[in-house]
Amino acid sequence: MPGDPSPFPRVAHLVSLKNLGGVERYFSRFFLSFGKDLDLDIFLQTEKIHPFIAQDFIAHGHRLHSIKGPGKLKLPEAFGIRQRYFKSLIDNTSPQAIIVWNKLRGNPMPPGTGVPVFHYEHGTSWVAKRDASTDKYLQRLNGVIAVSNAAKRMLQIRWGLRESTPVLTLHNAIELPDRASEHPEGRFRLGFAGRLKGLKAPMVALETFRVVHSHFPNAEFWIAGQGLLEPVLREWVRLWGLQDSVRFCGLMDDMSSFYTSLDAFICPSWREPFGLVAQEAIAHGVPTVVSNVDGLPEALLDASHGAVLEPTRPKQMLAKYGEACVEGPSEVYSPRSDSLVAARVLDPEEAAQQLLYWANSPELRRRMGLQARERLASEQSLQRYGDQLMNFIQSNL
Length: 397
Prior knowledge:
This protein has helices at about 20-35, 50-60, 80-95, 125, 130-140, 150-155, 200-215, 230-240, 255-260, 275-285, 295-300, 350-360, 360-380, 380-395; strands spanning about 10-15, 40-45, 65, 95-100, 115-120, 145, 165-170, 190-195, 220-225, 245-250, 265, 290, 305-310, 315, 330-335, 340, 345. The chain is of the alpha/beta class. The chain has two domains: about 10-175 and about 380-395, Glycogen Phosphorylase B (Rossmann fold), CATH 3.40.50.2000; about 190-380, 3-Layer(aba) Sandwich (Rossmann fold). Strands 3-2-1-4-5-6-7 form a seven-stranded parallel sheet, with helices on both faces. Helix 2 links the parallel strand 2 and strand 3. The longest helix is centred in the last third of the chain and has 18 residues, at about 360-380. The protein starts with 10 loop residues before the first strand and ends with a helix.
């Protein structure tokens, strides 16, 4: 695809880039790979772009359009003024299709444009509230791109997405990093990455590390990310006497250096539509523990690249650390039962046993990492992702 005239239709993308979650990071990766060759425009739901990814878009500023008004002007929403402006943007840029990135409730897409609309589902179906406007939006779709089978099933089970609506399940693609963890003898460093908030379950990761540390005193725990729960985590690190073994790395713009410094990774989220950090960890050759919930098992591609554990504890058990630790959706998708179930979290003793098994065998971790990297290289390239995405759009216009 890159370097050749695009055989694909012109597609515009409606997206918010002000935060640094999985959608924003992934759209940035997609744009850098295909932005020029796919002749695309970006309709920004918010004017601000997170500073960690802003540089990716600066050189293409003429293709960025705020849907709220020209330049820095914000038009009022009253009397449909802002919506008419957005419709004029669509008319002027003349896309042949629009992909709406992860926006269900309060969707700003104006009616009557005549442009086919595709929805990219990356987690909003877990949290958005259903109303007449969301039902109308789902009915007008030409198709859905789902980041995982779990995301597809959430739309069908929870939102009543019609079986006749075309759906492409398309896992996030990743270019294989040049570097990988070397798993040196005598070291065991566990990692966690993500926003430090309830549904990411960082307290479960810390509980697990506490058990690991009790059996492997030289073990370390590195945490990448910031959020509401950081003071809570720091306090329990102090109470459990783990200050010398836990490092708070904060926000990192070089995540590759983080992953290559690890020997194992844990993603204990009780809601995770796909699990980009789990995918990134195995791409750097780091065995990963995940909950068997939502799309997390799909991020590993194969259980041999880590461990998929069934969450067995009600998430309310984390309330003893503070109510902020249980904030988040109470209903999630269970791959085991193919149904919506009450959210539960991992048992730290079970997760720790798996990690201790790896801790005692650096050679095993190296083999697991090599297998994961080989599988990702053959199945999850950005080139393949772009071709599948655009072929799906083209075949459903």
